[in-house]
Design a protein that fits this description.
The complex is a heterodimer of chains A (296) and B (323). Chain A has 296 residues and is mostly helical. Chain A contains twelve helices and two strands, in the order ααββαααααααααα. Chain A has helices spanning 4-43, 50-55, 72-103, 106-120, 124-143, 151-175, 179-187, 192-203, 205-221, 224-229, 247-254, 263-295; strands at 59-60, 68-69. Chain B is built from ten helices and twelve strands. Chain B has helices spanning 7-30, 53-66, 79-87, 102-112, 141-148, 182-190, 207-216, 251-255, 275-285, 287-295; strands at residues 35-36, 42-48, 70-75, 93-96, 116-131, 139-140, 173-177, 202-204, 220-225, 233-236, 238-239, 262-270. The chains are: A mainly alpha (296), B alpha/beta (323).
């Protein structure tokens, strides 16, 4: 029989750990509640139409004559920049993860991991600065675009920011595949490539998907870098070389001027709610996909 | 295998967020009055116009020489941001490159029980900038409206009769400011006749960014304070209407009001300024403070005018320059 104190201590510790776990849910719920609470009055106010908010491209929050709050162009801006970032970042990120976990020597791996972690520690405003000064000049000189701050610039910067996340989580996922899988593959005479794409990738599917999604999350939520690199123009982009404005950058640029309690202020919070819902949908979709994979 | 869940980092960041909120909630009230720091130095909080932020920074630095025990904390963000902060009582002095709106004065009275008081501390020509290789010699206010306003027709330089050398696609790249900017509001009021801006312009965050982007883009046009001119851009003379002579943005043209986009630069306080804030504003209106305005490329208030601060919609200030 163990001493009473030890049993109590264990119970207490268990409670603390449970509390920590539950606190995550509480925090998310609380943040959502407070954001929605600031936004709610405008939702039910006269003259505000949810349809206009979601599907109009006209964003005139401070118009002297006709105030309109349409976020569709901003949503399209967010989606386009994120999509381009993922097109660039996913192949590179997963490729780097595969290389790190399967192909390189332990010494190279340790060095690369440190460098990649450093890459993810660069503040987003520094990335934005790179986009605004270095990247925009490169884009102008290589594509002949009139302005270098556009979807392409924002996408590249966001890709650079999401790659470290994808690499480190992806590598963990590949590492978690039991060595017996590799041994079995080798025993059957598989080459290294066959091993990777016939055995490891299917086995690590869920983890790799999680890695990609964390990358998406990083790209959707990023603010400072896109504010500086995308050109901040409210319209639907016709090409990669068009400027756009994202939902996040719009909130960052305008929340300071909007007097608290005004319609403009509340609509910006509503935009925050919209962002929240977008990430929720992305995560839920991923969850269903992962479950589908598991059932197979 | 299980999907890696980033719970621990999330919890940490949530905690950090919560503590940051707590800190800012505590700090918010403290900034209301000029506060005494440990070293018994007075701190004046100053925020607002991006057009004026450079001048305001030099004022703050110079004033420290004159009054070492007063520290002025300057930040930009736009006139709208400065005025919003003033209405909340979060700053002592707001800089604005536009007039206070009557609705804002009402808001201030409702929030704090005090009317904002304005001081005219200089003037500026809102200059229209193009790339230095752009051969355009003048532009009318109507053309600016057609170019920038919602429903406007002009989208190409050729429609203004301008051919830009070495450019295939002469679509005009409109560069504008974000809506918290006083420059944006002044331009909308005086160049667009209060019509809304056409969507799709590049809405940049600072006066300097506008000039920089115009300087690197041959097909661009933008507007910004005259103090931001560089070697890679040129300021286009503006005609009030077609047929009228175009006027270049110069100090003389601002003084005699012949430049159509001339404007006043203001400082706003909540109620009559007192103590350190009053001394600071008096100093800004003194020859020493006005020299800073001139050095920054703006137009100082004319001698004599400095003694009569501009009236805010609600009340009038009574600042006297130091002897």
């Amino acid at each position: 029989m163990r001493p009473r104190a030890a049993v109590l201590a264990e119970k207490a510790l268990e409670a603390v750990i449970r509390l920590s776990g539950v606190s995550a849910i509480v925090f998310v719920a609380a943040i959502f509640f407070f954001v929605l609470r600031e936004a709610a009055p405008v939702l039910f106010s006269e003259g505000f139409s949810l349809k206009q908010f979601l599907f109009s491209t006209e964003w005139y929050p401070t118009s002297a004559t006709n105030v309109r709050y349409g976020t569709f162009a901003l949503t399209v801006g967010t989606v386009s920049v994120t999509a381009l970032a993922m097109v660039l970042a996913v192949p590179f990120g997963l490729g780097a993860a595969i290389y790190l976990s399967e192909f390189c020597s332990p010494r190279v791996r340790e060095t690369l991991k440190v460098v990649i972690e450093l890459l993810s520690a660069i503040p987003s405003v520094v990335w934005g600065f790179v986009g605004l000064t270095v990247m925009s000049k490169l884009i102008v000189s290589s594509t002949g675009a009139p302005v270098g701050v556009n979807v392409l610039n924002g996408g590249i910067i966001l890709a650079l920011m999401s790659v470290p996340v994808i690499v480190s989580i992806g590598e963990d996922a590949l590492k978690a595949v039991p060595d017996s899988f590799r041994e079995a593959g080798v025993a059957l005479g598989a080459t290294r490539w066959q091993l990777v794409y016939r055995v490891l990738l299917p086995a690590a599917k869920n983890g790799l998907l999680a890695a990609v999604l964390l990358g998406v999350g990083r790209a959707v939520g990023e603010t400072m870098a896109v504010l500086m690199a995308t050109g901040h123009a409210v319209h639907i982009p016709g090409s990669l070389l068009d400027s756009v404005r994202t939902l996040t950058a719009n909130i960052a640029a305008e929340l300071g001027e909007a007097p608290s309690g005004s319609d403009h202020y509340r609509v910006l919070f509503l935009t925050g709610t919209l962002l929240f819902l977008i990430t929720l949908v992305v995560n839920l979709t991923a969850d269903f996909v992962v479950r589908g994979i598991r059932r197979k | 295998m299980t999907r890696p869940r980033p719970q621990a980092p999330f919890r940490l960041s949530a905690l950090a967020l919560a503590s940051a909120l707590a800190v800012s909630a505590c700090g918010g009230g403290g900034a209301k009055e000029t506060k005494e720091t440990k070293a018994s130095r007075t701190v004046i909080q100053n925020k607002g116009s991006d057009t004026m932020v450079n001048v305001a920074q030099v004022w703050a630095e110079e004033y420290r020489k004159a009054a070492p025990d007063v520290e002025v904390e300057v930040s930009g963000g736009g006139s709208g941001v400065g005025i919003a902060a003033l209405l909340k009582g979060a700053v002592d002095v707001a800089n604005a490159s536009r007039d206070l709106k009557p609705s804002e004065a009402e808001q201030a009275l409702k929030n704090t029980g005090k009317s904002p008081v304005g001081f005219n501390v200089g003037s500026d020509a809102l200059a229209v900038y193009v790339h230095k290789d752009n051969p355009i010699t003048e532009i009318t206010v109507e053309q600016l409206t057609e170019l920038y306003a919602e429903g406007g027709k002009v989208t190409r330089w050729s429609e203004l009769g301008v051919t830009i050398p070495g450019v295939k696609d002469d679509t005009i790249v409109r560069v504008s400011r974000q809506s918290s900017s006083g420059t944006y509001e002044f331009f909308r009021e005086h160049a667009l006749g209060n019509r809304d801006f056409r969507l799709g312009s590049r809405d940049l965050n600072g006066s300097k960014e506008v000039v920089e982007l115009v300087g690197t883009t041959p097909t661009a046009i933008g507007y910004s304070g005259m103090g931001y001119a560089t070697a890679s851009v040129k300021m286009v003379p503006v005609a009030p209407k077609a047929g009228a002579p175009a006027v270049a943005p110069t100090i003389a043209a601002v003084h005699d009001k012949s430049y159509p986009l001339a404007r006043s630069l203001h400082l706003y306080t909540l109620g009559e300024p007192e103590g350190a804030v009053k001394a600071y504003i008096d100093w800004i209106l003194s020859p020493a403070g006005q020299r800073v305005v001139e050095d920054a490329g703006y137009v100082p208030v004319a001698a004599g005018a400095a003694e009569a601060p501009s009236a805010a919609p609600a009340a009038t200030g009574t600042a006297q320059p130091k002897p």
